């Protein structure tokens, strides 16, 4: 049981390292706050979602325990949970190492089905697995992209109707050029700034509150909502592995253990994925980041009580893809690389799960 729990800790840690920063990537990418403050906010709100998941997501625990589409005899095999947890953890840790934001849900589903396929005499209900796992995972990013493309112009229009205007950022630089006679000529240049050099600001007031203060406050709130939703959606999937590996660890204790391990993984291992999510997908300002977060939080929170395992990664990235497409600032090379990582995730996890299942059978 101790070995099983140690193996379960690996995907929880990997989930935190790869996923924790995704909810607050827009805070960092738009210059609202610095990396550490964004990370601490993500960790606290994700942990709150992990604890709340015990009351909200019984369906997800059932789905990712394998009981809905894998035979009971397969689940009873001693090596089955070890194969699933090992394959899931290896896939997510590899992606984290290269800075690729992949879906832990995808990795876990692939590992679960790969290990079940390799188990002797296993019976897998592929139709139910497709309905419960593959369909929501495929639809999630498409819904997010469509929502961003449709809703961001409406949100931008609403901002303008409220009298909130966005000020362009201008960077002024000076350069001294030495002359042959010993004098120097000063050259002054001005250019429109970008997210790396300065931050766009908003002017105006809404019900007496400065618009910049209001937007920044809503941005923090929306980022917390995304991280909370991620905790609610992801924690029960890993708790399912805990129950598979150590059935005696029931109730709130399992959720706290998983939530704390996810938090620790995020605090210590999130930097590379944070850079990809914050700066490499699209340039953004605070309003665009707020829009992406609202779309992500709404979709993920709506799906969790229904037992639909939408990937927070796919939804949050999809929202950023859509915002980048509308603003024409999307970095398509990075987006293509992320899509490639998504396509590889499931077959890689399934192959590792099948291989580890065969290995545990050989060891006996």
Summarize the structure.
70% of the residues lie in helices and 8% in strands.
**In this structure, how is the largest beta sheet organized?**
2 strands, antiparallel
Query: Which of globular, elongated, flat, extended, rod-shaped describes the shape?
Result: elongated
Please tally the helical runs, counting DSSP H or I stretches of 4 or more residues: 14
Q: Find the count of extended strands (DSSP E, 2+ residues).
A: 6
Which regions contain 5 or more consecutive residues with pLDDT less than 50?
Answer: 189-197
The CA-CA distance between the termini, in Å, is: 16 Å
Q: Report the helical percentage.
A: over 70%
- Cα Rg: 23 Å
SS content category: mainly alpha
**What number is the mean pLDDT?**
81
Indicate the proportion of strand residues: 5-15%
- If strands are numbered along the chain, what order do they take across the biggest sheet? 1-4
Order of helices and strands: HHHHHHHHEEEEEEHHHHHH
